[in-house]
Predict the structure.
Amino acid sequence: MPEETIFSKIIRKEIPADIVYEDDRVTAFRDINPQAPTHILIIPNKLIATANDVQPEDEQTLGHLFIVAAKLAHDEGVADDGYRLIVNCNKHGGQEVFHLHMHLLGGRKLGPMLSR
Ligand code: DGP
Protein backbone atom coordinates (compact mmCIF):
# COMPACT_ATOMS: atom_id res chain seq x y z
CA MET A 1 0.00 0.00 0.00
CA PRO A 2 1.33 3.48 -0.84
CA GLU A 3 1.82 5.86 2.06
CA GLU A 4 -1.03 8.25 2.75
CA THR A 5 -0.49 11.95 2.08
CA ILE A 6 -2.16 15.09 3.33
CA PHE A 7 -4.75 14.60 0.57
CA SER A 8 -6.21 11.54 2.35
CA LYS A 9 -6.72 13.73 5.42
CA ILE A 10 -8.48 16.33 3.25
CA ILE A 11 -10.78 13.64 1.79
CA ARG A 12 -11.64 12.48 5.34
CA LYS A 13 -12.04 16.13 6.46
CA GLU A 14 -9.41 15.71 9.14
CA ILE A 15 -7.75 18.90 7.92
CA PRO A 16 -9.50 21.86 6.32
CA ALA A 17 -9.60 22.56 2.60
CA ASP A 18 -11.87 24.58 0.33
CA ILE A 19 -13.71 21.59 -1.11
CA VAL A 20 -15.69 22.52 -4.22
CA TYR A 21 -16.95 19.05 -5.19
CA GLU A 22 -17.10 15.57 -3.70
CA ASP A 23 -18.76 12.25 -4.41
CA ASP A 24 -18.01 8.61 -3.69
CA ARG A 25 -15.09 8.48 -6.17
CA VAL A 26 -13.63 11.97 -6.39
CA THR A 27 -12.86 15.03 -4.23
CA ALA A 28 -11.94 18.47 -5.60
CA PHE A 29 -10.58 21.40 -3.61
CA ARG A 30 -8.76 24.67 -4.21
CA ASP A 31 -4.98 24.53 -4.36
CA ILE A 32 -3.33 26.07 -1.30
CA ASN A 33 -0.87 27.90 -3.57
CA PRO A 34 -2.90 28.94 -6.61
CA GLN A 35 -1.05 29.55 -9.88
CA ALA A 36 -4.08 31.05 -11.64
CA PRO A 37 -7.42 32.64 -10.65
CA THR A 38 -8.94 29.15 -10.80
CA HIS A 39 -6.65 26.42 -9.48
CA ILE A 40 -8.46 23.31 -8.31
CA LEU A 41 -7.06 19.87 -7.55
CA ILE A 42 -9.27 16.93 -8.52
CA ILE A 43 -8.28 13.68 -6.88
CA PRO A 44 -9.52 10.10 -6.74
CA ASN A 45 -10.68 9.17 -3.24
CA LYS A 46 -8.76 5.93 -3.72
CA LEU A 47 -5.08 6.42 -2.97
CA ILE A 48 -3.15 6.01 -6.23
CA ALA A 49 0.36 7.39 -5.72
CA THR A 50 1.34 8.36 -9.25
CA ALA A 51 0.26 7.98 -12.87
CA ASN A 52 2.64 4.99 -12.95
CA ASP A 53 0.43 3.18 -10.45
CA VAL A 54 -2.83 3.37 -12.38
CA GLN A 55 -4.52 -0.02 -12.75
CA PRO A 56 -7.16 -1.20 -15.25
CA GLU A 57 -9.79 -1.11 -12.48
CA ASP A 58 -9.14 2.64 -12.05
CA GLU A 59 -10.34 3.41 -15.56
CA GLN A 60 -13.86 4.53 -14.58
CA THR A 61 -12.69 6.61 -11.65
CA LEU A 62 -10.04 8.38 -13.71
CA GLY A 63 -12.50 8.95 -16.54
CA HIS A 64 -14.78 10.46 -13.90
CA LEU A 65 -12.01 12.94 -13.04
CA PHE A 66 -12.49 14.44 -16.51
CA ILE A 67 -16.27 14.61 -16.08
CA VAL A 68 -15.79 16.49 -12.80
CA ALA A 69 -13.12 18.73 -14.38
CA ALA A 70 -15.51 19.74 -17.17
CA LYS A 71 -18.30 20.45 -14.66
CA LEU A 72 -16.00 22.54 -12.45
CA ALA A 73 -14.62 24.45 -15.44
CA HIS A 74 -18.21 25.32 -16.32
CA ASP A 75 -19.08 26.24 -12.70
CA GLU A 76 -15.97 28.44 -12.44
CA GLY A 77 -16.86 30.22 -15.68
CA VAL A 78 -13.63 29.25 -17.44
CA ALA A 79 -14.95 26.62 -19.85
CA ASP A 80 -15.45 28.88 -22.88
CA ASP A 81 -12.16 30.78 -22.64
CA GLY A 82 -10.34 27.56 -21.86
CA TYR A 83 -8.19 26.07 -19.19
CA ARG A 84 -5.43 23.53 -18.61
CA LEU A 85 -5.55 20.09 -16.96
CA ILE A 86 -2.22 18.80 -15.63
CA VAL A 87 -1.15 15.56 -13.97
CA ASN A 88 2.46 15.64 -12.74
CA CYS A 89 4.36 12.38 -12.25
CA ASN A 90 7.45 11.86 -10.12
CA LYS A 91 10.61 13.98 -10.08
CA HIS A 92 10.84 15.14 -13.67
CA GLY A 93 7.12 15.88 -13.71
CA GLY A 94 7.46 18.01 -10.58
CA GLN A 95 5.10 15.90 -8.46
CA GLU A 96 5.16 16.99 -4.81
CA VAL A 97 2.20 15.12 -3.34
CA PHE A 98 2.13 11.39 -4.01
CA HIS A 99 -1.62 11.00 -4.31
CA LEU A 100 -2.50 11.26 -7.99
CA HIS A 101 -4.25 14.56 -8.75
CA MET A 102 -5.38 16.59 -11.72
CA HIS A 103 -4.75 20.36 -11.63
CA LEU A 104 -7.49 22.49 -13.21
CA LEU A 105 -6.03 25.90 -14.03
CA GLY A 106 -7.85 28.77 -15.68
CA GLY A 107 -9.09 32.33 -15.45
CA ARG A 108 -6.21 33.88 -17.37
CA LYS A 109 -4.13 33.12 -20.45
CA LEU A 110 -1.75 30.47 -19.19
CA GLY A 111 1.09 30.96 -21.63
CA PRO A 112 3.32 28.27 -23.09
CA MET A 113 2.81 24.78 -21.74
CA LEU A 114 6.40 24.32 -20.57
CA SER A 115 8.99 26.72 -19.25
CA ARG A 116 12.05 26.66 -21.48
P1 DGP B 1 2.05 18.54 -7.58
O1 DGP B 1 3.32 19.33 -7.75
O2 DGP B 1 1.43 18.20 -8.91
O3 DGP B 1 2.25 17.33 -6.70
O4 DGP B 1 1.03 19.53 -6.88
C1 DGP B 1 0.74 19.50 -5.52
C2 DGP B 1 -0.16 20.66 -5.25
O5 DGP B 1 -0.80 20.44 -4.00
C3 DGP B 1 0.56 22.00 -5.13
O6 DGP B 1 0.10 22.85 -6.18
C4 DGP B 1 0.17 22.54 -3.78
C5 DGP B 1 -0.99 21.68 -3.35
N1 DGP B 1 -1.06 21.38 -1.94
C6 DGP B 1 -0.08 20.80 -1.20
N2 DGP B 1 -0.50 20.66 0.08
C7 DGP B 1 -1.77 21.15 0.12
C8 DGP B 1 -2.73 21.28 1.17
O7 DGP B 1 -2.52 20.90 2.31
N3 DGP B 1 -3.93 21.83 0.83
C9 DGP B 1 -4.22 22.24 -0.44
N4 DGP B 1 -5.43 22.78 -0.65
N5 DGP B 1 -3.33 22.14 -1.44
C10 DGP B 1 -2.13 21.60 -1.17
